[in-house]
Amino acid sequence: MSTQSAPRFSARVYVAGDNIDTDQIIPAQYLNLVPTNPEEYIKLGSYALSGLPDDCAPFVPPPGSKSPYGIVIAGRNFGCGSSREHAPVALGAAGVQAIVAESYARIFFRNAVATGECYPFETAVRLLDRFQTGDEAEIDMPGATLTNRRTGEVFKLQPLGAVGPVVAAGGIFAYARKTGMLQ
Amino acid sequence: MNGMTITEKILARHAGLDRVSPGENVWVEVDVLLTHDICGPGTIGVFRREFGPKARVWNREKVVIIPDHYIFTADELSHRNVDTLRQFTMEQELAYFYDPGTPNYRGVCHVALPEAGHVRPGEVIVGTDSHTCTHGALGAFATGIGNTDAGFVMGAGKILLKVPETMRFRFDGKAPDYIMGKDMILKVIGDIGFDGASYAAMEFTGTAIDALSIEGRMTICNMAIEAGGKNGIVAPDQKAVDYVRARTSKPFEVVTSDPDAKVVSDRVYDAATLEPCVAEPHLPSKYALARQRGDVKLDRAYIGSCTGGKIEDFVAAARVLKGRKVAIDTFLVPATCEVALALIKTTIDGQSLVEVFADAGCLDIAPPSCAACLGGPIDTFGRTHGNEVVISTTNRNFPGRMGSKQSSVYLASPLTVAASAITGRITDPREFLQ
Lengths: 183, 434
Ligand code: SF4
Hints:
The complex is a heterodimer.
Chain A: E1 8-15, H1 22-25, H2 38-46, E2 69-73, H3 86-93, E3 98-101, H4 106-115, E4 119-122, E5 136-140, E6 145-148, E7 154-156, H5 163-169, H6 172-178
Parallel strand pairs in A: 1-2, 2-3, 3-4
Antiparallel strand pairs in A: 1-5, 5-6, 6-7
Chain B: H1 6-15, E1 25-29, E2 32-35, H2 40-51, E3 63-65, H3 76-92, E4 96-97, H4 109-115, E5 124-127, E6 141-144, H5 147-156, E7 158-162, E8 166-172, H6 181-192, E9 201-205, H7 207-210, H8 214-222, E10 231-233, H9 238-245, E11 265-270, E12 277-279, E13 287-289, E14 300-304, H10 305-308, H11 311-321, E15 329-333, H12 337-345, E16 347-348, E17 351-352, H13 353-360, E18 389-392, E19 408-412, H14 414-423
Parallel strand pairs in B: 2-3, 2-5, 3-4, 5-6, 8-9, 8-11, 9-10, 14-15, 14-18, 18-19
Antiparallel strand pairs in B: 1-7, 12-13, 12-19, 16-17
Bound molecules: iron/sulfur cluster (SF4).
The site of iron/sulfur cluster has 14 residues of chain B, from helix 4 and helix 10.
């Protein structure tokens, strides 16, 4: 679980497009890796977003397993496609703390929360042309804002609501234990 | 008070409530948890980590494991994953495990699950695969979930679900015989968009849906997820009941929507006006008429998967291919062993489908599995490795879905794929059907 519960954090952003599907987040050939095996978890991180077209900047420059980008900025329908939990896991394993997208595919959103791998923020603003890959950004969780440090622009995020504490706890099981729902 | 939709009724019954409303979060009892070789080992990992190494699954007859994705490969991790499933099955004494390499092997989970009688009207089915929505074709509530949720279900037998709003799609009239379930669902996805049904239940009704076989309805419900739907569903009729009765003696209850149930949208199509179509790269929502894309030259044709690898799909392809020759490499992958057997037994004018395809010059029929539908390990049958242009009966055409990021995939019905295989360019099957 890569998330941290600090109320605000800064990271470099990686800008992806609309309809980033799970095959682009983690190509099918790596689905033989099992997320709950610690070594394979790290490997999944090294392949995060490796299915993006070749003219995109590498998300995890080889031979590393961590990405220099801790925030992914995307358009509509992020995580569409398969139910593979390998997708939020690969992003979390690569060091992604948050995704900020206009909308998510249902299963990806739920998997991101259930695993506690990364915060899936939604925003009503189209951010694809307001950020460049490599910009430094700050997310303020209580204030629900995203700041582009390069331009100084501040964008409103939709509050995470009930989902926030689940991710902060490290996923649905950890949350259920913490709150006494599960022994 | 309004009535309830079929989806609401099933969820209410499984939550022990008289009624539920869209948006409400309810804990529902699960009838079947489906998993496979891609997500099974991770689900087992979550289950063991969270419930302890000695934990037992909540019900040994309700966890159904169907390995299907990475079966015919030399990849060692893939073999290790199937071994994990084998070991877990023994340890937990699971009743249903369709083990590759044994007579129990079945093939692609979404065709195998109903074939083996695990899908029954009115039930709640969750699976670690987004196309679990296929099973709404028999009037069940069925949806895809991730490993963590599935690990929870494995231990607790329950899942917290948000009751979806229902979008209704009605196909009136009679579909011409060159129109298949695939053309109907691609039309819907093209109209509402790739996220047009996000979080919603997609309910399919109308005379043209009634006229479809169970397999045709499966094709439609299978692709509900391609519009972001939570589930696809068709109210069970006598055809559905007969299909289920022929495969299981377990009891079930038929549930249908109340006439006054509230839906958020109601789209009506005249089935008679539908035309054969394709979804262009790289989204299932990029709808185009087959007859208008004759300019697209193809390198391969692919018939297979849970969407387009059922026996009805091969019969349709054979109708077009009989007595003709394909112009491009044509890959055939039956979804399950039952389909593979039916390819031998089903005949057209005294010729078996296997012979029809061989005479047409198709590649040798592959053993049943997901194969190149999702790319898979490098040695997967039919996987793309370069800039191939493929026409396929599968359900997704995202970049890299069939292997290579440079390849492009057009989705179409088996009739359209077969017609296109003959000409080597996208072709409306009416050119070959009288
Ligand atoms: S055939 Fe394709 S879509 Fe169906 S379960 Fe297999 S990989 Fe998924």
